[in-house]
Amino acid sequence: MTYDYDLFVIGAGSGGLASSKRAASYGAKVAIAENDLVGGTCVIRGCVPKKLMVYASTFSHLYEDAIGYGWSSFLEKAGVELISGYAKFADPHTVEVGDRKITAAKILIAVGGEAHKIEVPGIEHAITSREMFLLKEQPKRLAILGGGYIGVEFACIMNGLGTEVTQIIRRDRILHDFDEDIRSNVQDGMTKHGIKFVTGSSIEWIEKTGECLQVKVWGKSQEILTVDAVLCATGRLPNLEKLGLEKAGVEVDNGAIAVTKDSRTSQPHIFAVGDCTNRINLTPVAIAEGRAFADTEFGNNPRAITHENVPSAVFSQPEAATVGLSEGEAREKFGDSIKCYTAKFRPMFHALTGADEKTFIKLVVETNTDRVLGVHVVGKDAAEIVQGMAIAVNMGATKKDFDATIGIHPSTAEEFVTLR
Questions:
Q1: Bridge partners of 12?
Q2: Closest by alpha carbon to 104, among 52, 48, 33, 38?
């Protein structure tokens, strides 16, 4: 059967862009459909502008410098046709974009995720991370619902810019899936910076009164907050609502597209990468999945990526980064053979400022093999440090390997090779 395209990609975010350009480089005829701006969540309303806001919240002049940062998808140069509009399935090999019907031998779904709001009265008055980048003026008082990395990062950004921030979380600590020491050190640092935490609580309702919002908090805390804006950062869900997956016979499992290790769906010619599969929702992961798909299907280089030991960072203040197993995960898997090495100290930058800022580092080691299973950092440049440490963890480095390495003095990273 003859198709209009060898590959049709739905969604021009990180995964879609990476896979379409890689497939086109192998000579495939490729088109990509996007009903919004090209670039996806990360570039348009996620990690890139958010990181610029982090810079702005610490040093105001850096925001002016950030004007020079530009993004271009280079789709045309890569040989990929961009079709503007929302694509949905008509049948397993056909998609509809507006009035146009398009067929493809293979189809890749890379539609990402969308912010999810909890269902409480008045939630329509709350905003999500999408609208945070569109605020016409800075709120003087902000309530944030949710203790994940999005809520944590925006709490630090807005606090750094001078907003009075109250963060409402269901648990006692933020960053539920992180190592316990990461959670406590970041939250303690945020508290020192002036962010108020309301723990063990959620909200019952939101009411608009004039220019302000009233937020009823219930749970461990019972109070009514008066704020200028409410950010609902309670998670993101795969963006599948209008795709017509049932017409294509694509299986959905627990709200996400079900895929095999090589990103194949229940239809052998339809694939999915990135946040819509809800594996690890990080931009570099979506890019790696997309490129592996293109290499396998169009580059005669079959391969799949591993989702183990993926490094990640929270650009909070203080910053945090991690790779590998948390102490809790390691003890659950290996029992009493786990030993942790930690250090907490004032970074050299603050030796003269006198500020009450601390850096925390942690190695999780399995004593039978001496292998380092996890690396965790809270403090300045945590992400830069852990990116390098991730290579060592993935190569199976041992504590002895760390001990045998000469440190760079004076630096934070050297502490990892001097832990005893």
A1: none
A2: 33
DSSP state letters, 6-44: EEEEE--SHHHHHHHHHHHHTT--EEEEESS-TTHHHHH
Task: For residue 307, tell me if it sits in a domain.
Answer: no
Q: What does 169-202 look like in DSSP terms, one character per residue?
A: -SSSSS-TTS-HHHHHHHHHHHHHTT-EEE-SEE
29 assigned to some structural domain: yes
Return the half-sphere exposure (C-beta side, CA atoms, 13 A cut-off) of residue 265: 25
Question: According to the model, what pLDDT value does residue 77 have?
Answer: 81
Quote the number of domains for the chain.
3
What's the pTM value of the predicted model, to 2 decimals? 0.87
Structure tokens at 123: 């939630």
- Please, is 107 exposed, middle or buried when counting C-beta atoms within 10 Å of its C-beta (0-12, 13-18, 19+)? buried
pLDDT per residue as tens digits for the range 189-228: 999 999 999 999 999 999 999 999 999 999 999 999 999 9
Catalytic site residue from 116, 125, 376, 409: 409
409 is a catalytic site residue: yes
Task: Mark whether 164 and 217 lie in a shared domain.
Answer: yes
Looking up residue 134, the CATH number of its domain turns out to be 3.50.50.60
